[in-house]
Amino acid sequence: SLIPVKQSTSVTKPTPLILAPGEGERREFRTRPGVTFTVKVDPKNGGSEHMAVVTEDMAPGDRIPIHRHPHADELIFIQSGTGRVTLGDKVQEAHAGTIVFIPSDTWIGMENIGKDHLTHIDVWSAPGFPDYMRAISVPAGEPITPLSKAEVDELRKKYLHYGIYQ
Q1: What predicted TM-score, i.e. pTM, was given to this entire model?
Q2: Strands of 82-87's sheet, edge to edge?
Q3: What is the C-alpha to C-alpha distance for residues 56 and 144, in angstroms, rounded to an integer?
Q4: What string of pLDDT tens digits covers the 166 residues of the chain?
Q5: What is the CA radius of gyration of the chain?
Q6: What is the widest separation between alpha-carbon atoms in the chain?
Q7: From CA 70, how far away is CA 113, in angstroms rounded?
Q8: Phi and psi, residue 31, nearest 5°
Q9: What does the chain look like in DSSP terms, one character per residue?
C-alpha cells in the first residue's frame, strides 16, 4: 500500500488575486516625500515566494537613484509619462508602453523628465526588494518623518542583498 507523503507548506499559502488599480499596500517614501508606491504581490501580499510586483507614481522631477539588484531580474512597464532611463551604460528616453528589462546586477535608474506623473509597474523575479521599500516609507496617509543620510545608509546596508546603490 502507498504511504502518504507529508508535503511541506509555506508560512503563507499563495492566494490568487485580482487587484484593481487602487488595491494593495499603498505607501509613501520617507526619502522621496509625495511619491507613492503600492506593493501588489510579494510574500506579504498574496504569499508569492517567487516574485514581487510594485506600482509607483513619480511626480515631475522625481528620480529613482541608480542601483542594481543582485538577487533578481526586473521588468519595468511604463504606463504613463516620460522618463529618462539609465540602464547599464545607456541612457534613453522612455514613454508609456515601454518595457525595460533589467538583468540581475545591472545598474538602473530613472527620472521623470515630463510635466505629468510617470507611472510604472515593477516586477522582480524574486521577492525581497519591497522589504527595503517598506523600510524607507510609511503607509500612505501617515506623517512623514524624513530619514537622515546616515539612516538611509544604514537601511541600504541592511538590505544590501536586494539593492546596491551607487
Answers
A1: 0.90
A2: 90-95, 82-87, 108-112, 63-68, 164-165
A3: 17
A4: 555 444 444 445 899 999 999 999 999 999 998 899 999 999 999 999 999 999 999 999 999 999 999 999 999 999 999 999 999 999 999 999 999 999 999 999 999 999 999 999 999 999 999 999 999 999 999 999 999 999 999 999 999 999 999 9
A5: 17
A6: 70
A7: 27
A8: -90, -20
A9: -PPPPPPP--SS--------TT-SEEEEESSSTT-EEEEEEBTTBB--SS-EEEEEEEPTT-EEEEEE-TT--EEEEEEESEEEEEETTEEEEEETT-EEEE-TT--EEEEE-SSS-EEEEEEESSS-HHHHHHHTEEETTSPP-PPPHHHHHHHHHHTTTT-EE-
6/128 Cα distance (integer angstroms) = 28
Place of cell 524574486: 126
Residue tagged 508609456 (cell numbers): 96
